[in-house]
Write a structure and sequence with these properties.
With 440 residues, the chain is mainly alpha-helical. The protein folds into 4 domains: 88 residues, Multidrug-efflux Transporter Regulator, Chain: A, Domain 2 (Orthogonal Bundle); 86 residues, Orthogonal Bundle (Methyltransferase, Methionine Synthase (B12-binding Domains), Chain A, domain 1); 118 residues, Rossmann fold; 119 residues. The chain is 58% helix and 6% strand. A 5-stranded parallel β-sheet has the order 4-3-5-6-7, with helices on both faces. Strand 3, helix 9 and strand 4 form a beta-alpha-beta unit. The chain starts with 10 loop residues before the first helix and ends with a helix.
């Protein structure tokens, strides 16, 4: 039997997948003969993936102004003409009509507002409306992924809190996990692993990628957040995947993505992506693997193409001898440097009451740029610091003294051998004094 037509889903699963009420589904079946579920021996309705796509097709027609009767008549006329009605609902997000895009934007706005108000029911209702308009892949990308990006930006601007962002992230992840539970059986036997390297706690993107890949027929195995490189290697030995996909949203985890690519080279193909690779394209040439593209919707198609004919592995930019010497000394002196920097921060009136996580977060970015062989990779982080709000009462002019503390600690413990770091810090301290910490 064609997998698309195999009766696998109960009525509750179809309601959850499409956002259409159970009573409405039964009415459509009785009056119009669509969808056409089969019956289990117990008499329960069992729906196929094609039935679910049929319901989405009908709701898409309704969103364009048709009555359900008109939508069914169109389905019948297309079928009688030998055409496949479901091709319409399988369009990509880029092919959305303007009206459909506006409707999705309203769903996203409602979802974000509900998350900020901790209203789980309203958030689920908003996402359910999106599911009634478009396939679940598009709804996840347009409502959940973009909605989380909006909430993250609101946190950065001081208009949302950390706990609001965490609530929204958890809710979005739960929704994708629910969709994952009802994905039809995959069509590919060979597995691929989706991993987050050490320090990477942003897991929604990799989780959503896992769902998109399974919808495309891949046997994608998601291994969760903050996974040590050695554990990824152990998983590779056990699962024998053809591909490992690593995701990073921030600079520090890229160091381990780089290490993973080198350690897997010659055994398993590595693909990678994430927000930081979009923000800093120069990072892509530091990884022994294949960049998946800037959008999650590109990933399945690229893997399909590469699996048929893998391109040559891109050349990797080497780390200079100067950087390797600085790396070795920094790692040797890291703890004394941190102790000195924290002492200087606590003694300055503009930096003594900063968020407790900020000093270590900054160290992780400086160290990552040094390990990756280019301090300019951390430039964007300083720009981020200058605009930071996070709901804290950060004092005007704090960024300059903050960076000066790092300069003082590195000068004391690395001396002239720390010129790569101190030169970079001095440049940003000078820029900070000129622009007033981003206009604060």
């Amino acid at each position: 039997m064609d997998e698309e037509k195999r009766p696998l889903f109960n009525l509750k699963a179809v309601v959850r997948e499409t956002g259409v009420a159970a009573a409405t589904l039964r009415t459509w079946e009785r009056r119009y003969g669509l969808p056409r579920p089969q019956r289990a021996p117990s008499g329960r309705r069992l729906y196929s993936q094609r039935d679910i796509e049929t319901v989405r097709w009908l709701t898409l027609c309704q969103s364009r102004g048709m009555t359900i009767g008109q939508a069914v008549a169109l389905w019948q006329s297309l079928t009688e003409a030998g055409k496949e009605p479901l091709l319409e609902v399988r369009r990509t997000a880029a092919e959305q009509s303007p009206l459909q895009g506006e409707a999705l934007a309203r769903c996203r706005e409602a979802w974000v507002a509900a998350c900020l108000a901790f209203d789980e029911s309203a958030a689920d209702a908003a996402f359910g409306q999106a599911l009634a308009l478009v396939p679940p892949e598009v709804a996840c990308l347009e409502v959940l992924q973009k909605g989380l990006a909006e909430i993250g930006e609101a946190w950065y601007q001081g208009h949302a809190t950390v706990h609001q962002e965490h609530f929204a992230s958890a809710l979005a992840a739960l929704r994708v996990q629910t969709l994952l539970a009802i994905v039809p059986p995959v069509s590919r036997a060979d597995p691929l692993l989706v991993v987050c390297p050490p320090g990477e706690t942003h897991t929604f993107g990799p989780l959503l990628l896992t769902y998109l890949l399974r919808r495309a027929g891949w046997r994608a195995i998601y291994l969760g957040a903050d996974l040590p490189v050695e554990e990824v290697e152990a998983a590779v030995r056990r699962a024998a995947p053809r591909w490992v996909i690593a995701s990073a949203c921030q600079l520090p985890p890229v160091v381990d993505v780089q290490a993973l690519g080198l350690r897997l080279q010659g055994r398993v193909l590595l693909a990678f992506g994430g927000r930081i690779f979009n923000l800093l394209p120069a990072l892509r040439s530091r990884i022994a693997g294949y960049f998946l593209g800037e959008g999650l919707n590109e990933a399945a198609a690229r893997l399909e193409e590469w699996s048929a004919r893998p391109p040559a592995l891109p050349a990797i930019d080497p780390v200079s001898a100067e950087y390797r010497r600085a790396q070795a000394l920094y790692l040797e002196q890291e703890w004394p440097i941190k102790t000195r920097v924290l002492s200087l921060l606590s003694a300055h009136p503009l930096t003594c009451d900063l968020p407790t996580w900020l000093p270590e977060y900054t160290f992780s970015h400086l160290r990552a740029a040094l390990m990756l062989g280019d301090m300019e990779l951390a430039d964007a982080y300083v720009d981020w610091l200058r605009g930071l709000r996070d709901g804290f009462s950060l004092p005007a002019g704090w960024v300059g003294p903050f960076l000066e503390a790092y300069l003082g600690g590195i000068e004391q413990h690395m001396g002239g051998d720390g010129a790569l770091l101190t030169g970079w810090l001095s440049r940003h301290i000078g820029g900070t004094s000129q622009d007033g910490d981003g206009g604060r």
